[in-house]
Amino acid sequence: MLWQWPQPGDLEPGQTFTIPDDVFVTPDGKSLIATQEDDFVITEIDIATRKIVWRYGTPGAHGSGPNQLWNPDDAMKLPDGSVVAADIKNCRLVDLVPSSPGPVWSLGTLGSCAHEPPARFGSPNGVFPLPNGHFLVTEINGAWVDEIDRSGHVYWAVHVPGTTYPSDASEVRPGQYVAADYTNPGQVVVFDQSGRALWRWNPTSGEGRLNHPSLAEGLPNGDILLNDDANHRVIVLDPRQNRIVWQYGHTGVAGRAPGYLNTPDGLDPVPPHSFATVMGLTRPTPGSW
User: Fold this and answer.
1) Where is the Pyrrolo-quinoline quinone repeat domain positioned along the sequence (predicted)?
2) Lowest mean pLDDT: which of 70-84, 114-128, 266-280?
3) Can you give the CATH number for the domain in which 95 is found?
């Protein structure tokens, strides 16, 4: 373990950091954007100073007014400095900046979670940027994934094939996307814009069985990095060999000692391979599925 936060003295008097969920590295590699889904807060942490430098949301109090969120998910800083996130129980997508007390951009209808983009979204749990400047939105209700732009134009929308609780879909290579299925046994699916499954990892027994995986992300060599939440591990899958090629954590055993994890629910490689860093680049195509 190379770095961990918070440690004694990192939080200012009155500050809290509870129930962290997903975390992404900022494009400049200097900060982390941590989403505290069940504490209704998004927090930016400066890696060098170990201090909170920005926060949106009211800790412990959900809502939809100024400085309020309701189960935000997958907050990520874009190259322009704004932070985009899915606001699950507010049924909307938001873009936030430090200078504004409310979203500078949003899509969806407050309190109306149904699949009818861009007017409504069915409990959106991911809004990931694409290299073309659009966004990939994952909707829990109905297992939908949509490609949209900031104006709300919908380019395509498909059911994630064979899933019941899709989580955090993102692009792994041009025109191909990956999503985790947050179930037990869980699965990972690579699919295209027609909704056709190109590759699937879904063992129902043995060491490969997943238990509520929540985030899968493509790596430059074509492998897939995955947090397997309830199995308390992070793994790398090789789709060409159809096997696990790396693991951190002890399967099914939660812990805090070196080599152990406890319900990991978010991950991101550090630059130059972090998601925000490579999203503007064309990913390599290291072979077929």
Assistant:
1) 125-248
2) 266-280
3) 2.120.10.30
